[in-house]
Amino acid sequence: MNVDWDDLKTVLHVVRGGSLAAAGAALGVNYTTVARRIARAESALDMILFERLADGYQPTRAGLRVAEHAAEMEAREHDLLRQLQGQDERLSGRLVLTAPQLMIGPYVAPAIAQFAEAHPAVEVYLKAGNELADLTRREADLAIRISASPGDSLTGLRMAAQDSASFAAPIWAERMTEGKAAVIDWVVYEQIAHVPKQALERFPNSRVVLVCNDMAAMVGAAVSGLGVVRMPVFLGRATPGLVQVPAIEPQTYADVWLVGHPDVWPSAKVKAFREILVPEFRKRRAEFVA
């Protein structure tokens, strides 16, 4: 019995992702290739790993067992590659970084520019977004995260403490001078879809006019004058067209961390990048607090 590792890995990703399309996206191959690999694994093992149903591939007991062992094999592979990467003393090749999209322009990009000038043989690949990359599975070498802590399994450096405050277009600052009679509109995040209690105490006629699932959209709405938004202080200050308004008092927000897997942390590329990024953030810490 001889089963190709790519085929076993494909079985794992179909089980993990729940569909051929999700597996293909994770593996960087098309739907047809995923189906072909599954068929090849079944032929090599001489057993059915998935039931072909109208709504997709459903793993059999054998399929789940194969996926379980493939996950263990994958973990060992990642362990080895991380450890080798951590011993890499070359300042060349690729460095993968993840960062929140709205932090990239004012803070991350300038550090990348310095790094690129100092180490031109290193290619920086930046994954922008708020999704947490799995550093154990080597989805990134370093991650900038907004968090209370970096996580027990990661190594991290706290780059800045943060506050949040209320920001809006200048028209709302003018309206707040009317006092409690002022009608104040709010743009709020879907997970906290209400006017802050303190804002209602100060301006009883406050109301929600828009609920969003994305901070970039909320910032755009605020700039357009649609209403007040509670956001991290750095973001409000870095956005042209917004001013801080006294709808609420500034509040403590999650810290800014640079994190990495302990195995990868010692590598030359990771060390060189953090030696540029961390001091730049810490030099500008005052921009993150009220």
Automatic annotation (TrEMBL):
Residue span, HTH lysR-type domain: 3-60
GO-annotated molecular function: DNA-binding transcription factor activity; sequence-specific DNA binding
Phosphoprotein among keywords: no
Claim: Iron-sulfur is one of the keywords in the record: no
PROSITE patterns: HTH_LYSR
Domain of life: Bacteria
Stated name of the protein: Transcriptional regulator, LysR family
